[in-house]
Description:
By secondary structure, this protein is of the alpha+beta class. It has helices spanning 2-26, 62-66, 139-144, 162-175, 179-184; strands spanning 48-52, 72-76, 80-83, 88-91, 94-100, 119-122, 136-138. It binds iron/sulfur cluster (SF4) (2 copies). One iron/sulfur cluster binds at residues 57-63, 74, 114-116, 118-119.
Amino acid sequence: MRRHLHSIYQALNTIRIGMQITLKYCFARTVTVQYPDRPPVLQPRFRGFHWYEIEKCSACGACARACPVDCIYIENAGPRKIDRATGISRGGAMVRWAIDYSKCMFCGLCCEPCPTQCLHMGNVHDLSGYDRRSSIVEFTELAAQGLRTPQPIWMQKGAVPAWVEARRAEWVELGRPRADEMRLALTDQPFPKKPPAESPPPDPSPSKDA
Ligand code: SF4
Ligand code: SF4
């Protein structure tokens, strides 16, 4: 009889412990974000999909060498170098600059060694697509459209919430002021020749032979 009562006590106590946890969550603050009706809350140091300033890129490959998973692909038609006077890189056309986001782990190691500081972790948080191929972002193709960063497919279609309109405008604004330079980076651009060194002025002191 005693054993039987102990079993009943244990069963009731187990239910009490379980229900305590359930009740706690019934009255806790809701943390579910109603995405995409509402924007996700991004922390200040959030690392999302990159944004890339192609017109400053010298195609040095430092970012690709730093990438631990080899997911950056760069092709250029010839050597490029930055013009310090304008901050724009000139030389062979940028044929391809792409990232395979099915491999990228958003570590940010590619941005650190960039000598022209033209590669940045952005705040695009969503890149949903229909197939695996769409996870490879061709930044050179984006540059042809004056864009620096990819946008989720669903944001490019139909009516979108107001917060999406605001964020898209912010992404478009990243490239708008230099859209022409971005397109030029896709073509061969001769590097400006250095002006010839000026000859020293003639010595004004009179000649000893005179
Ligand atoms: S964030 Fe990391 S994994 Fe992604 S491209 Fe850069 S270095 Fe590679
Ligand atoms: S490190 Fe910077 S300049 Fe060099 S290829 Fe990468 S993005 Fe371009």
